[in-house]
Amino acid sequence: MNAAFNKNIYFLSDFHLGSPNAAVSLQREKRIVQFLESIKNDAEEIFIVGDMFDFWFEYKYVVPRGYTRLLGKLAELTDAGIKIHFFVGNHDMWMRDYFQTELNIPVYFEPAFFEFNGKKFLVGHGDGQGPGDHGYKLLKKIFRNPVCQWMFGILPPYVGLGIANYFSQKSRELANKKEEVFLGEENEWLIIYSKEVLQKEHVDYFIFGHRHLPIDFTLNENSRYINLGEWINFDSYAVFDGTITTLKYFNK
């Protein structure tokens, strides 16, 4: 994909709205909306790189309750002509067509290439990429299976969403117990994955989420790996100004 560069390109990820409870999630949602409001005048495009929600499932005629402030802001931005891209994460992979039809936001299920002002980007959530994590990769195939999605979809929303939110919360609690530290380039799966891609083609910037740790790592003299962190503890994001991509923090 190619796009002419006019203003800034923004990348952010891992809001996990809904976690750990409605009150805390609402404050985070308001902060994200405040950030989006602050960039609306200089944003050419915005990439939301997965796990916007701690859980999301689109029934045919039912949309999960809540998040009206954020969804309304996204609609406002796309109505104003700002292009927004959404990549599904491991917590909100059960997307259908709600974002496309209601918000005019394309949804991506796999990493995708983009080019801005002569710079090549590979953007994706990052789950299941690189070596290891074989248990999750198998689980991801099951969750992405249309039959499994149909079976979950025939459950009444009250039952299905209740079960899913319970396990989603447990997953987040387990992840929160792990200390988020840089493991070194030999142990960071997304760095390994980025190096594998570079053996086949040049990429200026690898932009991922999922890791929950803001990382700006130089792969070689022409390529960098940037992990966007998350909005639970860091409020971190990246911005490309036409020349360079910078990892930043909102209101820090």
Q: What characteristic shape results from the CA principal axes?
A: globular
Helix content: 25-40%
**CATH level-4 homologous superfamily:** Metallo-dependent phosphatases
Enumerate the spans where pLDDT stays under 50 for 5 or more consecutive residues: none
The neighbouring-strand order within the major sheet is 1-6-7-8-10-9
Indicate the CATH architecture.
4-Layer Sandwich
Largest sheet data: 6 strands, mixed
Q: Quickly name the level 1 CATH class.
A: Alpha Beta
Cα end-to-end separation: 33 Å
Question: In sequence order, what are the helices and strands, one letter per element?
Answer: EEHEHEHEEEHHHHEEEEE
CATH topology: Purple Acid Phosphatase, chain A, domain 2
How many strand elements?
Answer: 12
- The radius of gyration is 18 Å
* Nearest-integer average pLDDT: 83
Q: Which class best fits the helix and strand makeup? A: alpha/beta
Q: What is the percentage of strand-forming residues?
A: 15-25%
Total domain modules: 1
